[in-house]
């Protein structure tokens, strides 16, 4: 089958190209999906667009096939895939018109009939801050904060609000603070303003992936509180000495958590004694995220700033990197 895919072919170069889908017989858990919509993750994919590798890896191998938020229709399914032909499903599929994937190694969740695909695709980024709620000691009623109100930070603030927490959103960009207010976050601050950063929060999500953001997060954290590093640290910042961060952690008894969702298993292992303390799974977080969206508990329509045709992928990635104040939620709409 001929299909199309978005590829990063060189630093700051994205192209839509044709490829031949693997037509071998499906394995028991495999599915083939005809894509309807994919979501561009500005932080992660913006880094890949610039050929910045994941921290700890020497380089990004090009060409690279980006994308990990896909909603589409099942057009073929193996007998153990738990979905059927014709189902609309959310997966971590890439930016491609047709995707083949193994549901045993990646979440594959049926989208509720009354949830539009353009909203369902945001489940991917909701699962990121949901991981922190699985592993943190913070609970409903606690005061919390989010540093960085991009897509993940905005959704993280909404997730914590839905969990009954008192949330403060923190961002340097006025447009993102205003958007958070429209999404139901009642208190937002500019960290540069006098007395805006107060050490009164039980849990702080650091969603910028920067050393300066981490310093702000620590300053927001109460004695004995927690900071969850949700943002990936793509670029080193030598202007922030490690001693500044270490001192704040040490003398204020702060617990620092990894916010990376891959610390959770892919699927639940239910009914086994060895898994009784398992803090959930990515698949379960995906199901919960879709349910929150279906019930209107998380606002995402306000987050969509751009809709692109796949052939306009170069402009989409340039927007993610060069126009962060203007472009936030960017969707690729794939023709049927």
Describe this structure in words.
The protein is 26% helix and 27% strand. By secondary structure, the chain is α/β, with parallel strands linked by helices. It folds into two domains: 2-122 and 300-333, Medium-chain alcohol dehydrogenases, catalytic domain (Quinone Oxidoreductase, Chain A, domain 1, Alpha-Beta Complex), CATH 3.90.180; 126-263, Rossmann fold. Strands 3, 4, 5, 6, 7, 14 and 15 form a seven-stranded mixed sheet that branches. Helix 7 links the parallel strand 12 and strand 13. The chain is globular.
Poorly predicted regions are none
The total tally of domains equals 2
Mean pLDDT: 95
CATH class of the largest domain: Alpha Beta
Q: Give me the CATH architecture of the largest domain, please.
A: Alpha-Beta Complex
Characterize the biggest β-sheet: 7 strands, mixed
Label the overall shape: globular
Distance from first to last alpha carbon: 15 Å
Reading the helices and strands in chain order gives: EEEHEEEEHHEHEHEEHEHEHEHE
Q: Work out the strand percent.
A: 25-35%
Q: Share of helix among residues?
A: 25-40%
CATH fold type of the largest domain:
Quinone Oxidoreductase, Chain A, domain 1
Total number of strands: 15
- What structural category do the secondary elements indicate? alpha/beta
């Amino acid at each position: 089958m001929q299909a199309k895919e978005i590829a990063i072919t060189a630093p700051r170069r994205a192209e839509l190209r044709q490829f031949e889908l693997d037509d071998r017989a499906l394995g028991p858990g495999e599915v083939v999906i005809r894509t309807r919509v994919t979501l561009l993750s500005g932080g992660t994919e913006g880094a890949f667009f610039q050929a910045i590798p994941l921290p700890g890896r020497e380089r990004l191998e090009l060409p690279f096939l980006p994308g990990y938020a896909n909603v589409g229709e099942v057009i073929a399914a193996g007998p153990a895939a738990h979905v059927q032909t014709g189902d609309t499903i959310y997966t971590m599929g890439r930016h491609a018109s047709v995707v083949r994937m193994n549901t045993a190694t990646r979440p594959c969740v049926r989208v509720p009939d009354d949830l539009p695909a353009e909203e369902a695709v945001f489940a991917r980024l909701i699962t990121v801050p949901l991981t922190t709620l699985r592993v943190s000691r913070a609970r409903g009623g606690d005061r919390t904060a989010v540093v960085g109100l991009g897509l993940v930070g905005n959704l993280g603030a909404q997730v914590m609000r839905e969990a009954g927490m008192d949330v403060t959103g923190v961002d340097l960009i006025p447009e993102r603070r205003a958007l958070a207010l429209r999404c139901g976050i009642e208190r937002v601050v500019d960290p540069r303003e006098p007395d805006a950063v107060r050490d009164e929060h039980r849990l702080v999500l650091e969603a910028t992936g920067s050393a300066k953001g981490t310093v702000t997060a620590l300053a927001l954290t109460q004695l004995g509180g927690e900071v969850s590093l949700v943002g990936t640290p793509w670029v080193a910042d030598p202007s922030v000495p490690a001693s500044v961060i270490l001192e704040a952690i040490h003398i204020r008894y702060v617990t620092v958590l990894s916010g990376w969702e891959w610390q959770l298993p892919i699927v639940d292992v239910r009914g086994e004694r060895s898994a009784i303390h398992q803090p959930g799974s990515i698949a379960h977080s995906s199901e919960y995220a879709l349910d929150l969206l279906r019930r209107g508990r998380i606002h995402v329509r306000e987050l969509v700033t751009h809709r692109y045709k796949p052939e306009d992928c170069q402009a989409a990635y340039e927007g993610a990197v060069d126009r962060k104040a203007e472009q936030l939620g960017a969707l690729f709409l794939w023709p049927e």
